[in-house]
Design goal:
Elements (H helix, E strand, L loop, with lengths): L25 H18 L13 E3 L5 E3 H10 L15 E2 L1 H13 L4 H25 L3 H11 L6 H16 L3 H13 L3 H13 L3 H13 L9 H13 L13 H13 L2
Helix pairs in contact: 4-5, 5-6, 6-7, 7-8, 8-9, 9-10, 10-11
């Protein structure tokens, strides 16, 4: 008789195929868990105000890390923590280790995606501003104007507004025409409309397209006690804005898209 036989199977073996079943991709699972842990850890360093990774991190008295400019502006308006809503002092401590750690993680790829991209963009902007600062302090009027622009746009930050105005004024004093135009803009925004009009007039005469647009607006509206309303002069300055060119002495500039749009819009509306 044929002897009975038994098949001894290894634990987990596929008896039908005689092969071991494929192992689960434990490496991929581990990578996902690691990425999740890194993302959660990085979120702890997001500035509670900007919700971005801080380029110039500081630790406030509430124990949280913030972007220096963001928490500085906050403390100008409030004496309470943005996180706890409890009273806290004004003291801020440099968090250089946080910045160093973030830089290492971004460069290594541990932090990637939108958070890393924004952090690198802002880091480049700060590096560029430092370069403009160096050139401006060396007497470069164009760099002064660019440095002013790097501080501009934050109307709720009195310190930034002051720095923008200061650098625009210095740029104008060093003969840079766009600096003169931008200085006039800051004067106008602070209510000094008469002085602003005079500076716009000078810059427009020297061929700055944006200043021409501003002068056209002055004549279009008129300024009580300064300028009478005159649509013909407004038209003339709009046409001059469209004709502006860069001059050999550095004054003047070709109108950009915004200049052209505003000039053409006014001319179309007043044809």
């Amino acid at each position: 008789s044929t002897p009975l036989s038994r098949t001894f199977e290894r634990p987990g073996q596929d008896a039908a195929a005689g092969r071991m079943p494929p192992k689960k991709d434990s490496a991929a699972t581990s990578n996902k868990l690691l990425r999740s842990a890194i993302d959660k850890g990085v979120d702890e360093f997001l500035c509670p105000i900007t919700q971005e990774l801080p380029v110039d991190p500081v630790m406030a008295e509430d124990g949280h890390v913030y972007e220096r400019t963001a928490i500085g502006q906050w403390l100008q308006r409030s004496g309470k923590s943005p996180v706890t809503n409890l009273e806290m002092g004004q003291k801020l401590l440099d968090a250089k280790q946080v910045r160093s750690m973030l830089a290492t993680m971004v460069k290594s790829g541990a932090i990637s995606g939108d958070k890393a991209d924004k952090w690198q963009e802002r880091l480049k902007a700060e590096d560029q501003a430092r370069e403009w600062q160096r050139e401006a302090e060396g007497g470069d009027a164009r760099a002064m104007c660019k440095l002013g622009a790097s501080h501009d746009g934050a109307d709720d930050d009195s310190e930034a507004v002051g720095k923008a105005r200061m650098w625009y004024q210095r740029s104008a004093q060093h003969g840079y025409n766009r600096g003169l135009t931008n200085y006039a803009n800051k004067l106008h925004n602070s209510g000094e409309k008469g002085h602003a009009a005079l500076h716009w007039m000078e810059a427009a005469t020297r061929g700055d397209a944006w200043a021409c647009i501003q002068v056209a607006g002055l004549y279009s509206r008129g300024i009580s006690g300064y300028l009478a309303q005159d649509k013909e002069l407004a038209k003339r300055w709009c046409l001059k804005a469209l004709a502006c060119k860069l001059k050999d002495d550095g004054d003047g500039a070709l109108p950009d898209e915004d200049d052209e749009a505003k000039a053409n819009a006014w001319l179309d509306a007043n044809a």
